[in-house]
Write a structure and sequence with these properties.
The complex is a heterodimer of chains A (375) and B (310). Helix content of chain A is 66%, strand content 6%. Chain A is built from 15 helices and four strands. Chain B folds into two domains: 213 residues, P-loop containing nucleotide triphosphate hydrolases (Rossmann fold, 3-Layer(aba) Sandwich); 66 residues, Alpha-Beta Plaits, CATH 3.30.70.100. In chain B, the strands form three sheets. Chain B has a six-stranded mixed sheet with strand order 6-7-8-3-9-10, with helices on both faces. In chain B, strands 2-1-4-5 form a four-stranded antiparallel sheet, covered by helices on one side. In chain B, strand 1 and strand 2 form a beta hairpin. In chain B, helix 3 packs across helix 4 and helix 8 packs across helix 11. The radius of gyration of chain B is 23 Å and the shape is globular. The mean pLDDT of chain B is 89. The chains are: A mainly alpha (375), B alpha/beta (310). The interface between A and B is medium-sized, with 23 and 26 residues.
Chain lengths: 375, 310
C-alpha cells in the first residue's frame, strides 16, 4: 500500500505541475456542461412563420394573430400566391407556412369543417415535430372555443356532440424544459468521458516516455501500479462531478430531488467503470494518439446509444441489445431519476445491478490484459 | 568458487521468425565490470531485458544472483538496478522528487530515505541542483541522475544499457570512475557501450553480433585471440590515397584509417620494408612505420568484418 501512496503522490505532483492538464480537468467539464445544456436544446422558440391568407376575413386574421402571437412562433412575412410557399421553405426563410384557403370564414359560419393548411420544414424532424404539436394544440383549443360559441349562440347544449378528451399532463418536467433533461445527462457523459480519457492517457504516457519499463523493473506489483494510476483519476472525477453540481446550482437550477449522497455514491461506481475502460484502452494503445482515437471509438457509441440524446426504445432491436453493455445507459437512468423524480436506491435496483456487473466485467478484462502487457 | 553474479545459459529470444538473441552463454563474476559490445540491433538490449525480467526468454536460462529470472522475477527485481537505453525518469519532476519517488517504490522508509537520497546526490555529483526540474538538465547530468535512481536501493547488480551515449568526455570519465567505485564495493555491473576506451576498462567483454556471441574474455585475451597478426602503424603523406596502395601490397591482410595514421594488419612485421618501397615508389613520403599493439577497436572491426565474410 505504501507504494500505491507513492504513486498517487507522484501523479498529483505531475498533475499540479502540468499547466494544461489541470484546467483541462477542472474547468473543461463545467464549460462542456454549459455548452451541452444551452446548445443541445430541444425547446423551440421564435420559429419563423410565413402566412398566406387567401380568405382575408376577420376569422382568418383572428386565427393568424392567435397562432403567431405565442412565444414559439414569430411572423416573418406574408405572401399571396399559394405557389410561393415553396420558395419560403426552400430558401429556409420560414420553417412553418400557414395557408388559410378562400372560404375559411364562410365554412366556419355555415357549420362546415373549415380547412387550414400547414407546411413544415422537416429537414430537422425534432423541431418539426415539436412545432407541429404546439400548432395542433393551439388550433385544437381554438376549435373548441368556436364550437362552444356556436352552441351558445344556437341555444343548444354542446353535449349533443359527445367526445372524449384526454387531459395530458407531463410529470417531473411539466414545461418540457430541455435543461432539466440535458443537465443530468450531460453530467454523466462528461465525468465518464474525462475519467476514461485521463486514465488511458496517464498510463500510455508512461509507456511512451519509457518510465513504465523503469517501473516494471522495480518490485512494484501490477495491482499496485493499477491502483496508483487509477485512484488519482477517481478523485479527479469526483471533483468534476462536484464542480458540475455546483455549476448546475448556480446556472441551471435543475433540482436534485433525491439524495445527494446516493448520487455521489453511484457516481463513484460509474467512475470506476470509466477508469477500467481507460485502463483497457491503455492496453490497446502504444502512443497517446492511439489511445485518444481508441477512446473515441469506445465513447462515440456511448454518446449515441446510451439514451443520452435519443430514446433507446426507438432504436432497432439489435442496437437496443447492444445498449445493455453500456454502463452509461444505467447510470443515466439512475441520475435522471435522482434529479427529477427523487428516486431512492430501492427504485433503481434494475439499473444498479447491471451497472455493477458490467463494471466488474470490464474490470476483469482490463486487469488481465494489463497484467499480460507487463510480461 | 563464488557463483557468478550474472549468467546466461543458452539464452534465446525470438520475435516471430526473427531471432534477436541466439543461444548466448556467458558469466559475469561478482564485483566485476562486464562489457557488452556489439553493433546496434545485435541483441544487447534484448539480453539485458531478459536478465531484468522485462522479457521472458524463448528458451534457455537467465540467472541473476543465483536466481532464475523466469522462475522468481520478483526477488530478482529487488536485487538489481536498471538503467535503460532511453532516459526514463520523470521530466516534470525535480531531481529530488524523482529520487524520492523511486525510494518510496523500493520501500525505503520515510526516515531513511532522506539520508539515502542525500548520499546518492553526493555520489552522483548532483548536489548542485536537487530542486531543478529534470527537463532542464543536460544529457550528462540526466544520465548521472538515472544512475542515481538505479543505485538508490543499493542493488548488488546493475544493468546499464548505453549509459554514456551522448555524454561529453568529462562526464563520461566521471561516470566510469563511479562505476569502478561501485565494483570496488562489491557490486557487479553489466554495461553496454560503443566506446572502445570504455570497453578497455571492463574486466571482461562479450562481443555479440546478430544475436550470437562472437567472443568473450578480458580485453587482453580478446586482443590476443582475435588479433593473431601484428599491426603496423604507418604515418605518411596523403594517407587517403596511400590506403589503397597499402591494401594491395602482398602480405597485408587489411588496412584502415586510424586517425591520421593507417593501421595495417600484416602477416609479418617484415612487410614494413616492402610497404616503404611501394609507398615511396608512388610518390608518398613515409615519415614513420612502426609495430603497435592491437587496440580493441582493431579487434572489434576485425571480428565484425570477419564474421560478415563467413
Amino acid at each position: 500500500m505504501q507504494r500505491v501512496i507513492e504513486l498517487v503522490r507522484k501523479e498529483f505532483r505531475q498533475l499540479r505541475r502540468d499547466r494544461q492538464m489541470m484546467p483541462m480537468m477542472l474547468v473543461a467539464p463545467v464549460i462542456q456542461l454549459i455548452v451541452f445544456a444551452f446548445a443541445i436544446s430541444t425547446d423551440i422558440r421564435n420559429l419563423p412563420v410565413a402566412v398566406c391568407d387567401m380568405d382575408r376575413t376577420a376569422s382568418s386574421r383572428d386565427l393568424i394573430r392567435e397562432l403567431t402571437s405565442s412565444e414559439y412562433f414569430r411572423l416573418i412575412g406574408r405572401f399571396d400566391r399559394h405557389g410561393d410557399a415553396d420558395r419560403w421553405l426552400d430558401e429556409g426563410r420560414a420553417s412553418v407556412i400557414i395557408i388559410v384557403p378562400r372560404g375559411f370564414e364562410r365554412d366556419l359560419k355555415s357549420g362546415d369543417t373549415a380547412d387550414l393548411q400547414v407546411l413544415l420544414d422537416g429537414s430537422d424532424p425534432n423541431t418539426a415535430t415539436v412545432a407541429m404539436s404546439y400548432l395542433s394544440r393551439l388550433i385544437q383549443s381554438r376549435s373548441v372555443r368556436i364550437l362552444s360559441d356556436r352552441s351558445i349562440r344556437s341555444g343548444r347544449v354542446a353535449a349533443s356532440s359527445p367526445s372524449i378528451t384526454a387531459e395530458t399532463r407531463t410529470w417531473y418536467n411539466p414545461t418540457l424544459a430541455s435543461a432539466l433533461f440535458m443537465v443530468p445527462g450531460a453530467m454523466c457523459v462528461i465525468i465518464g468521458m474525462s475519467a476514461t480519457i485521463a486514465t488511458a492517457l496517464a498510463i500510455v504516457r508512461e509507456r511512451e516516455i519509457g518510465t513504465m519499463e523503469q517501473l516494471i523493473v522495480t518490485p512494484l506489483q501490477s495491482w499496485e501500479l493499477m491502483l496508483g494510476k487509477t485512484l488519482p483519476y477517481l478523485a479527479v472525477g469526483m471533483v468534476n462531478m462536484a464542480a458540475i453540481l455546483i455549476a448546475n446550482a448556480l446556472i441551471f437550477h435543475v433540482p436534485v430531488r433525491g439524495s445527494l449522497t446516493l448520487l455521489l455514491a453511484l457516481g463513484g461506481v460509474f467512475l470506476i467503470a470509466s477508469l477500467y475502460l481507460g485502463l483497457l484502452i491503455s492496453t490497446l494503445s502504444r502512443t497517446q494518439q492511439q489511445a485518444m482515437l481508441t477512446a473515441f471509438f469506445f465513447l462515440m457509441p456511448n454518446f449515441l446509444l446510451s439514451g443520452f440524446m435519443f430514446p433507446i426504445a426507438n432504436m432497432p432491436q439489435v442496437l437496443q441489445w447492444a445498449t445493455t453493455l453500456l454502463p452509461l445507459r444505467y447510470f443515466l437512468v439512475m441520475v435522471r431519476g435522482i434529479f427529477l423524480k427523487g428516486s431512492g436506491f430501492s427504485e433503481m435496483t434494475d439499473q444498479f445491478w447491471p451497472l455493477t456487473i458490467i463494471t466488474v466485467a470490464i474490470g476483469v478484462v482490463a486487469v488481465s490484459r494489463f497484467q499480460k502487457r507487463l510480461d | 568458487m563464488m557463483p557468478p553474479a550474472i549468467a546466461c545459459v543458452d539464452l534465446v529470444r525470438r520475435f516471430g521468425t526473427f531471432t534477436a538473441v541466439d543461444r548466448i552463454t556467458l558469466q559475469a563474476h561478482v564485483g566485476s565490470v562486464f562489457g557488452f559490445l556489439g553493433p546496434n540491433g545485435s541483441g544487447k538490449s534484448t539480453t539485458i531485458r531478459m536478465l531484468c525480467g522485462l522479457l521472458a526468454p524463448t528458451s534457455g536460462q537467465a540467472i541473476v544472483d543465483g536466481i532464475d529470472v523466469a522462475r522468481d522475477p520478483e526477488s530478482v527485481k529487488r536485487r538489481i538496478g536498471y538503467m535503460s537505453q532511453k532516459f526514463s525518469l520523470y521530466e516534470d519532476l525535480t531531481v529530488r522528487e524523482n529520487l524520492e519517488f523511486y525510494g518510496g517504490i523500493y520501500g525505503i522508509g520515510r526516515r531513511g530515505r532522506r539520508a539515502r537520497i542525500d548520499e546518492t546526490l553526493e555520489r552522483t555529483d548532483l548536489t548542485d541542483n536537487p530542486d531543478t526540474l529534470v527537463r532542464e538538465l543536460s544529457v550528462g547530468v540526466r544520465q548521472r541522475l538515472a544512475l542515481g535512481g538505479a543505485l538508490l536501493h543499493r542493488p548488488r547488480i546493475l544493468f546499464l544499457d548505453e549509459p554514456t551515449s551522448g555524454v561529453d568526455p568529462i562526464s563520461r570519465r566521471r561516470f566510469w570512475s563511479l562505476i569502478h567505485e561501485l565494483t570496488a564495493e562489491g557490486a557487479t555491473i553489466l554495461v553496454t557501450t560503443h566506446y572502445m576506451d570504455e570497453a578497455e576498462q571492463c574486466d571482461r567483454i562479450a562481443l555479440i553480433r546478430s544475436g550470437k556471441l562472437v567472443a568473450d574474455g578480458s580485453p587482453a585475451d580478446l586482443k590476443r585471440e582475435l588479433m593473431p597478426w601484428p599491426i603496423l602503424s604507418i604515418d605518411c603523406a596523403n594517407p587517403f590515397e596511400a590506403l589503397d596502395i597499402i591494401a594491395r601490397t602482398p602480405g597485408v591482410r587489411d588496412a584502415a584509417l586510424y586517425g591520421v595514421h593507417i593501421h595495417a594488419v600484416v602477416e609479418d612485421t617484415a612487410v614494413a620494408d616492402a610497404l616503404r618501397t611501394a609507398l615511396e615508389a608512388s610518390g608518398h613520403a613515409v615519415y614513420r612505420i612502426e609495430g603497435v599493439a592491437a587496440t580493441l577497436e582493431d579487434v572489434f572491426v576485425a571480428a565484425a568484418e570477419g564474421d560478415a565474410d563467413a
